[in-house]
Amino acid sequence: MNRGELAAFLRRSRERVRPEQVGLTAGSRRRTPGLRREEVALLAGISVDYVVRLEQGRGPAPSASVIGALARALRLEPAEHDALFYLAGMSPPGPGSIRMQVRPSVLRLLDRFHDLPVIVLSAKGDVLAWNAMSSALHGDWAALAPARRNLLRLRFLPEPTPEARSSVGASPAEAADADALVVASLRAAAARYPDDPALRSLIAELLAGSVRFAGLWESTFAGFMRSHAKTVIHPELGPLRLECDTLEIPDDDQQLIVYSAAPGTREAEALELLRVIGTQWPAPSSAE
Fold first, then answer.
1. Structural domains in the chain plus CATH codes
2. pLDDT tens digit string along 233-269?
3. Which of 287, 169, 279 is nearest to 233 (CA)?
């Protein structure tokens, strides 16, 4: 572990990322170039004190999961992603592992969607990147720990204290269809990545924690996330019937999901309103 170079690398990377690039509000009283340490900690799901110690070249060596979370939070290029792992004294994830890094060209594409909610998913359902409109529709992704930013954990492993999130499915039948869709996608990922430890751990966690998931896992065939319409129930705007178009990123086995509505509909007006109210969520009431 090269503590000095790792510390300098993290500082430089943090200072070049703008808040709006990672779905955060910049604010008007910002003196720090790029992201604040608090914002990096929030996005990576680690403590601010840990970020401070890493940037000062002290403290314990970070784990591979922490380094991966920092790489995603700082929007590193592929070569930079690998360099960060080497500076931390470990090898970057090799072939056969689910890719958790979003390439900069995809992030630039995401940045172009100013008026539609967009998320980027990993092969196992992790929300790797999002725009401000997605946080306005679904709930603030940055407020979740990185491990909770997973569609299957949110659907099948609700927290004891409900999180402030929109729910999916206006009827039991629609909710069941959504459940089956994400389970089928996970089963397909398990076939493609049989040796990925994080995927095996997720499946074991879901099987142990959710009878509903366990039943679907036994009865559902492998499938893929596909473009479809679904009802997202927002706590302030109510049920919104939205088109969800799935754009494949084949080289990285990731998906960019775009939520939209036909012009002139109530849903289109609601999306326009979301641009104004942003992430001003009420108290938590339900989990996705």
1. 3-87 (1.10.260.40), 104-277 (3.30.450.180)
2. 998 889 999 999 999 998 899 999 999 999 999 999 9
3. 169
